[in-house]
Amino acid sequence: MTRYVYDFEERVEGGRELLGGKGLGLAEMTQLGIPVPAGFTITTDACRAFMASGGEVEGLDEEVEEHIRRLEQKTGKRFGDPENPLLVSVRSGAAISMPGMMDTILNLGLNDNAAEGLARATGNPRFARDSYRRLIQMYGEVVDGIDGHRFEEALSDLKRDRGVQQDVDLSADDLAELIATFKRIYEQETGAGFPQDVREQLRRAVVAVFQSWQNPRAQVYRATYGIPDDLGTAVNVVQMVFGNTGERSATGVCFTRDPSTGEPGVYGEYLVNAQGEDVVAGIRTPQPLEEMRERLPEAYAELLDTMARLEQHYRDMQDIEFTIEEGRLYLLQTRSAKRTAAAAIKAAVDMVAEGLISREEAIARIDPGQLDQLLHPTLDPKAELEVAARGLNASPGAASGKIVLDADAAEERGKAGEAVILVRWETTPDDIHGLIQAKGVLTAHGGMTSHAAVVARGMGKPCVAGCEGLEIDAAAGTIRLGGHELREGDTITIDGGTGRVIVGEVPLVPPQINEDFETILEWADEVRRLKVRANADTPEDAAKAREFGAEGIGLCRTEHMFFGEERLPVVQEMILAADEEGRRAALDRLLPFQQSDFEAIFEEMAGLPVTIRLLDPPLHEFLPSLEEATDERMRQRIKALQEANPMLGTRGCRLGIQWPEIYEMQVRAIARAAKAVRERTGEAPLVEIMHPLVGFREELRRLRELTERVMAEEAPEIAYLCGTMIELPRAALRADQIAEVADFFSFGTNDLTQTTLGMSRDDAEGKFLTFYLEDGVLERNPFETLDQEGVGDLMRIAVERGRGVKPEVKLGICGEHGGEPSSVEFCHHLGLDYVSCSPYRVPLARLAAAQAALKEAHRAEYVAAGG
């Protein structure tokens, strides 16, 4: 029979995948001799068995009962004893950290008799009743699905009646009254009294934690961070230690380094006379950890020593939960800390300098997707602004947006393309869908370790928490910010780096890459094989790409150059021309514009390759709509160019073959620009001319002939390559034939995905594709993450067949997949020469390429060792 339960003292094979991150941390800390309450872990195997069976796990109840007996022996207390009761917490703990997404219940094991027995045993009736009212609320919310606002409203009503502000100001008698109120709410909502059988409490609590794996917020979180749905969660049953027994007790959260900046030092928060939920849920605003030095000096010193031990042991920044009961320290959890990209990079570079980790480990430790955070804007320091309120600088970056007061509205308006700021008293895990769509988060309550702060840091969104100058009237749809009254839809700006909140929109400036960032990328460049280029259509884009370390331009789209005020009328004149002579006359006037564009880009990318894609879109895109046409001649031309499916119509190389004078002009402009730049700088640009939408060898053969003829006429001394985009399934399948007349292939995976899957991106996203992703038909949006089994298989065929004919053919990718980490890894394994992405994703691609090379090297070492 499968074993499902293990004590913390037991050494167990299976690690994180079996015990979950929290269970593994508790077991390892116990075995290191760190003060941890006694307890046991119900494994992820049990959760998976529960889900597979529909709710029954054979033998689990008996195992749990045996481990409860062991816990009673260790503690000298009995579960359900009315005189000296053993109380436990029941906590979730998945293999991959999902902070706040699943459920926890504290003080389990209390009932009416045990609560009064605890009061007598401790001589502290207030503490016992405070613990019992918390259990009733948590149990009601988690196990029975009672709306937590019912309990919170009752608590607020009682505090108002007693004229107090804080929960800790309520007396023992007040709490006895509150318990009676909570029990009435429980019975009204469930039709039954609060369970007095503590074993029933435990059974139902374990089931509720298992079920919380499938709650909506956990599903949204897993989808956002690519966590598999079949991992399941472990359940940790831990002896309760109490931070709410009085002034010598406390609870808190701390980090071994600052999770926003990565700086070493004391970072964290705590609350005296409280339980852990008070800190992470933002129920009371906590105090900085440094203040504990004066109030609880011995526990503070032991905590600092333990923090250092844990970071040395795990060789990583730790996120630690602790409780102090009557001056004695207990650790409840340690895990690898969620951190901003800036903190991840700073900590990694420092840990290499400290000899804690290697450079390779530093590279592997950073999530490439997080690097976007370092490229987020900040407030323009030159902007004139009036700070309306201040809060805690909980997650760096700045954003402007319209106020929304609930997560559903944030999701709806964010998906519609509006910039919104989610403004809340404090966020809860159920707000995850709104947080994903919001540009930033502003809360009135909570601290640096509140839910809003932790989630925003992980997502790279700015957050200002605990803003005391913020009052919210959700019913009226208004807020007060300092002296300003604002409504939903009004614009505010938040600065998560300083905690400032400003009414109105403030200009933002792009961030600068710091020395630590450069160091990590330099280390990455030493180990990666893939080159990284950028997609850039202007000199400004090219300069930014080079600043971010691009090694060339993998896609320069020429059609964007035709839409300028001086150019568009000439383009339209060319399209409206009655014959070739008229078209050539208009194209002659366009040529100097094109040449100027190319010269500027070649100069910015001096010494690096530049791949220029000749005109790709259908001609009707340069004309107004039929309704906006100004004369009959234009209307007739628009009608003549109309197509039922323009994406698969007269575009790309089909234009160049039908009207070769268009591509002749573009190649001529490239040749003249390259020649001019060489004469000015003494260095010839590395030119690559790309013909789009090729599906047949003959198409590229004809266009190569055109390219060679014009280049020979204009600049015979300029070396160049002539190739094509692979964006049609037939091109991939017949890459062997096309390679005979190509110097390079560039996979245009945006269109290759559309043509392979038979999906129009514009029609799919926001419509059926959204449903597919939500309903589990697809796990990933194939336009964001490469479809490796479908589109990727076509790419494999193209690589094998193309290189089979021409081993030296250069291969790259220029769709936006070139900046997505898992797609970059796929391109590495496929043997491509480079990836190309937008300039701001170049650092991400550099790091992802290095990580792919390291993974490959580690696999090779493992195989060589006989693994």
In spatial order, strands of the major sheet run: 14-24-23-16-17-18-19-15
> How many DSSP H or I helices?
33
In angstroms, what is the radius of gyration? 32 Å
Structural class: alpha/beta
Number of strands: 33
Beta percentage is 15-25%
Low-confidence stretches: none
Principal-axis shape equals: elongated
Mean pLDDT, nearest integer? 91
**Terminal Cα span:** 29 Å
User: What percent of the residues sit in helical stretches (DSSP H or I)?
Assistant: 40-55%
Largest sheet: 8 strands, mixed
Task: Give a short overview.
By secondary structure, this protein is an alpha/beta fold.
Describe the structure.
This protein is α/β, with parallel strands linked by helices and 867 residues long. 46% of the residues lie in helices and 18% in strands. Strands 14-24-23-16-17-18-19-15 form an 8-stranded mixed beta sheet. Strand 11 and strand 12 (328-336) form a beta hairpin. The longest helix has 25 residues, at 580-604.
List strands and helices in order, with pairings.
Layout: E1 5-7, H1 15-32, E2 39-42, H2 44-53, H3 60-75, E3 78-79, E4 85-86, E5 88-94, E6 104-108, H4 112-122, H5 125-144, H6 148-162, H7 172-190, H8 198-212, H9 216-225, E7 233-239, E8 250-257, E9 264-272, H10 276-280, E10 287-288, H11 292-295, H12 297-314, E11 318-325, E12 328-336, H13 341-353, H14 359-365, E13 378-379, E14 387-390, E15 392-395, E16 398-404, H15 407-415, E17 420-424, H16 432-437, E18 440-443, H17 451-459, E19 463-465, E20 470-473, E21 478-481, E22 484-487, E23 491-495, E24 500-503, E25 508-509, H18 515-527, E26 531-535, H19 539-547, E27 553-557, H20 568-576, H21 580-604, E28 609-613, H22 632-641, H23 653-658, H24 660-681, E29 686-691, H25 697-714, E30 720-726, H26 729-733, H27 735-739, E31 744-747, H28 749-757, H29 761-764, H30 768-775, H31 791-805, E32 810-813, H32 821-830, E33 834-837, H33 842-864
Parallel strand pairs: 3-4, 16-17, 17-18, 18-19, 26-27, 26-33, 27-28, 28-29, 29-30, 30-31, 31-32, 32-33
Antiparallel strand pairs: 1-2, 2-7, 5-6, 5-7, 8-9, 8-11, 9-10, 11-12, 13-25, 14-24, 15-19, 16-23, 20-21, 21-22, 23-24
Helix pairs in contact: 4-5, 5-7, 6-7, 13-14, 13-18, 14-18, 18-33, 19-21, 20-21, 21-24, 24-25, 32-33
